Amino acid sequence: MRWGGVGEERRRSPPFRTNLLWHEVLIQQTVNGVTRGAVFALIALGYTMVYGIIGLINFAHGDVFMLGLFISLSYLTLLGMATTLHGWQLVTVLPLVFLATMLTTGTINVVIDRVAYRPLRHAFRLAPLITAIGVSFMLENLALIWKGPAPIAYPDVFPSVDILREWVGVDSLLFITTKDVLVLVTTIPLMIALQYFVTRTRWGKAMRATAQDKETALSMGIDVEKTIVLTFFIGGALAGAAGLIQGLYYNIGMWWMGYQAGLRAFTAAVLGGIGSMPGAALGGLMIGFLSAWSDQYISARWTNAIVFSILILVLIFRPQGLLGERVPDKA
Amino acid sequence: MRRWGWLGTFGAAVLVMVATIPMDATAQQCPKGKLRIYTSWPMQGAMIPEGTGMKNGVDMAIAEAGGVVAGYCLEIVNLDDASPQTGKWDGAVEAENANKAVADPLAILYIGTYNSGAAKVSIPINNRAHMAQITPANTYPGLTKKQGAAPGEPEIYRPLGFVNYFRPIPADDIQGAVGAKWAKRLGIKKVFILNDQELYGKGIADVFEATAKKIGLAVVANEGIDWKQPDQKPILTKVRASGADLVYLGGVIETGAQVIIRQMKEVGLVAPRVRFMGPDGLLEEELLKGATCEVAMATEMRVTFAGLPFEKMKGVGAKTYETYKAKFGKEPTSYALYAAEGGRVAVDALKRAAAEMDRAKDITEKREALRKAIATTKNFEGINGKWSFDANGDVDYDTMSGFKVVKADSPIGCKFQFETILE
To answer: Measured between alpha carbons, how far apart are the two ends of chain A, in Å?
Structure first.
């Protein structure tokens, strides 16, 4: 196993023989779709959790994801690790940065709730929606002032190894790298842990109770406000993790990416059934596939149109989303 | 700021002396009277150096003719189209300048503007008055042609239907054509074109595509990308699957060209298999920071640049460069020599139009005579070589320079280095 120095190694190995065959293209684009979709799913979870509990579409969520990328970059720089990590660094520094980023973005999300949503908890329902849009603009401009208008390079922290070629030894034209694996081994456990937390723990029970009926939950002795704070914290932490993964995987970040990613993730949440966590994950993956396939087989300029057409079709036939439950009094 | 202000004043004082000496000496040699040339571009704040440079250029051209052409004494009136409040060009001020010029019964020519947006305002005003306008700096294609233009352009700038706006500087879209020829010279066989779906980027990409097809370079696709998307791997995978050996991107750094370049390496798009090329919107140090030097060099990134760097010019260009430096004691600004070129074009056209102007009944007919003469400028000895105006008022030469990213001892680690002259 060789870690690092990938650029040189890849250049030494012979360049791909010919064009990719059709099934190789399909597999490659599916890999692109899975990784892209996993990031969407992680962001979508934050949308769906907050919506489930207070019925708010938190438009600032995508921008918390964007901040997650820049914050993780700052931590890496602070630790002097803004280069390709090796061996022990991967198992020490990287989890540490993950943890620090998630704590920070979780806290940011809690602060956003405290400042912009909590005072409006009992107000007219559209009021927090508008403040959410306002917060989104504020965060974007904050990042613009902080990092400037141009895209920022994210260092190649995680070594990228062409697994099939360099580890398995197959002379394949497919590019499945350690980075693709990284996305999956970070997002899937996070999603499983979240599902476990919500369905198996006391706090999770409190969250579900609050989501179902705030007043009754309150009368049962559940601290509803604390539960909401917890929900925002977890949502923010997941967005932060997604930001870090985005940075490690795509190696670039820009101040406007929160809007686009947020829109796609929100779409994923609605597609899967807003309020449903497995639905958010499924919706994220589906949008990942669909957009990657559309880029390949149709045209990149049509991708947004295609993704949203499919969303409309699904909603016409299944208004509650793929895995959503019918809750007529809530929608 | 202060330094420039002082230099500007000093430069202007020198210029007034330079410009007035020949005119005084030849005051009695104006048998046909006086004509005025108006100039208009920003002369405030950060624009003082460039504004002064262009003013120097025009002054130099008129001084070369001794201030008198075919019996007419020429006087230059410099106007500023920046608003004092913002320090930037302002449509209202530009309109005021153009109206002032057309209302002057001695005004024969308008040289300006610096900003393409300002030209959109003044071209129609001058057009209605049959007044020719020459720009030293506008490169937006839509001002003169359909290629790379918005709907309705350029006709909306020509209310009377004829061309009165001329530019002795190549428009942005020419870079697409030159880029395609360069790609062929580099041995490229098959190109995948991407564009950011914006006016500048798509315009250049479309011209690249058309030229590539004409010269036998295979084009896989000319695809618009969703530049707001931070993940361009699927589209780059498509490039890889197509077997193209060049990625040409019509874009600028503001629309995330960095993302495309940065992720090329991630999907295995690196030299010698695949290279990268783009227009001068990418010729910015900021791009190298975002895309990283490692990837820019791995893709052998190349960019085209309209015109030649002054120090690489030959013949008339080299002489003009030397004369300018000797006369004004400093390096010309980016567009100073193009302002000189504009002035020389006017002097040349004035000589050819003189007979018709002598017969003209009023100033409008005089302006029309000059406009026609400028439009028929042929085989002009310019700073980038010999050229003619085409039917749109554009130059027909396509001399450009090619830059390549190379390793450098700078904090970033690489830089754009002049590689070749492109025609």
So the answer is: 53
Interface mutation target, options B197, B231, B270, B289, chain A, most CBs of A under 10 Å: B231
ipTM attached to this prediction: 0.83
For the residues of A243-302, what is the DSSP string, one character each? Answer: HHHHHHHH-EE-TTHHHHHHHHHHHHHHHH-TT-HHHHHHHHHHHHHHHHHHHHHT-GGG
- Residue A49: closest CA among A177, A233, A256: A233
Contacts of B267 in chain A (CB under 8 A): 175
- Which of A24, A29, A151 has the CB atom closest to B234's CB atom? A29
Alpha carbon of B205 to those of A296, B148, B255: distances in Å?
Answer: 20, 9, 14
Answer whether A18 touches B (CB < 8 Å). Answer: yes
Range B370-377 contact pairs with CB under 8 angstroms and sequence separation of 24 or more: B370/B108, B370/B109, B370/B132, B370/B346, B371/B130, B371/B131, B371/B132, B371/B162, B371/B164, B373/B349, B374/B132, B374/B134, B374/B166, B374/B345, B374/B346, B374/B349, B375/B163, B375/B166, B376/B352, B377/B166, B377/B345, B377/B348, B377/B349
Residue for token digits 């029309």? B368
Beta bridge partners of B306: B400
Closest-approach residue (CA) in chain A for B272: A15
- Test B272 with A16 for CB contact under 8 angstroms: no
Asked if residue A42 lies in contact with residue A187, where contact means CB atoms within 8 angstroms, the answer is yes
Give 3-state DSSP helix, strand, coil % of chain B, rounded to 5: 50, 20, 30
Contact B407, B413 (CB under 8 A): yes
Residue pLDDT tens, chain B, 423 long: 334 444 444 455 544 444 444 444 445 578 889 999 999 999 987 788 889 999 999 999 999 999 999 999 999 999 999 988 777 789 999 999 999 999 999 999 999 999 888 999 999 999 999 999 999 989 888 999 987 788 898 999 999 999 999 999 888 888 899 999 999 999 999 999 999 887 778 888 999 999 999 999 999 999 999 888 888 999 999 999 898 999 999 988 878 888 999 999 888 898 888 999 999 888 878 889 889 999 999 999 999 988 888 888 889 999 999 999 999 999 898 889 999 999 999 999 999 999 999 999 999 999 999 999 999 999 999 998 899 999 999 998 878 899 999 999 988 899 999 999 887
Number of H helices, E strands in chain B: 13, 15
Q: What is d(CA A225, CA A118) in angstroms, rounded to the nearest whole number?
A: 9
Question: Which residues on neighbouring strands pair with residue B36, listed in sequence order?
Answer: B75, B107
User: Backbone phi, then psi, for B224, in 5-degree steps?
Assistant: -80, 135
Torsion sign over Cα B201, A32, A100, A44: positive
DSSP strand pairing (B385-387 vs B380-382): antiparallel
- Asked if B256's CB is within 8 angstroms of A259's CB, the reply is no
Give the three-class secondary structure for B335.
Answer: coil
**Pairing relationship of beta strands B414-422 and B246-250 according to DSSP bridges:** unpaired
**Contact (Cβ atoms closer than 8 angstroms) between residue A48 and residue A279:** yes
The shortest CB-CB distance from A295 to any of B235, B243, B292 is to: B235
In contact, B392 and B154? CB cutoff 8 Å: yes
Q: A140 and chain B: CB distance < 8 Å anywhere?
A: no
Measure CB to CB from residue B224 to each of A246, A260, A301 and give the nearest one.
Answer: A301
- Note the Cα B20 to chain centre separation in Å: 30
Q: Which residue does chain B place closest to A180, by CA atoms? A: B266
d(CA B186, CA A245): 38
Q: Closest by alpha carbon to B14, among B54, B59, B47?
A: B59
Dist CA A277 CA A194 (whole Å):
9
